[in-house]
């Protein structure tokens, strides 16, 4: 399942994690740690030390007296053993 990576996450928190060598990606909801590890290694030709997965549960919001909901998402925090990932060209 190489298409489990959706996009890199570019936020203040992910940029501060990047200074420690941790890259953050949005991944498919059903992706496992092993699938994310293989996808990152194959896509970027690097070695992965570990993967942490985080599921962000969507919340209910009201907008102009109407109820809505934000979508749930899943993120992968990936630390590399060696090498770097260049995300300037996109995924």
> What value does the average pLDDT take?
90
CATH topology heading: Alpha-Beta Plaits
SS summary, helix count: 2
CATH class label:
Alpha Beta
The helix content, as a percent range, equals 10-25%
Unreliable stretches: none
Overall SS class: alpha+beta
Please state how the strands of the largest beta sheet are arranged side by side. 1-2-6-3
- Based on CA atoms alone, the radius of gyration comes out at 15 Å
Amount of beta strand: 35-45%
- Largest sheet report: 4 strands, antiparallel
Distance between the termini: 15 Å
Q: How many beta strands in the DSSP annotation?
A: 6
List the domain count as a whole number: 1
Order of helices and strands: EHEHEEEE
* The CATH architecture: 2-Layer Sandwich
Output the CATH homologous superfamily: RRM (RNA recognition motif) domain
Question: What does this protein look like?
Answer:
- This protein has a single domain (2-82), classed as Alpha-Beta Plaits.
- It contains two helices and six strands; from the N terminus they run E-H-E-H-E-E-E-E.
- The chain has helices at residues 12-18, 33-44, and strands at 5-8, 22-27, 47-56, 60-63, 66-69, 73-82.
- Strands 1-2-6-3 form a four-stranded antiparallel sheet.
- A hairpin with a 2-residue loop joins strand 4 and strand 5.
- It is elongated and about 50 Å long.
Compact summary:
The chain is an alpha+beta fold and 91 residues long. It has helices spanning 12-18, 33-44, and strands at 5-8, 22-27, 47-56, 60-63, 66-69, 73-82. The chain has a single domain (2-82), classed as RRM (RNA recognition motif) domain (Alpha-Beta Plaits, 2-Layer Sandwich), CATH 3.30.70.
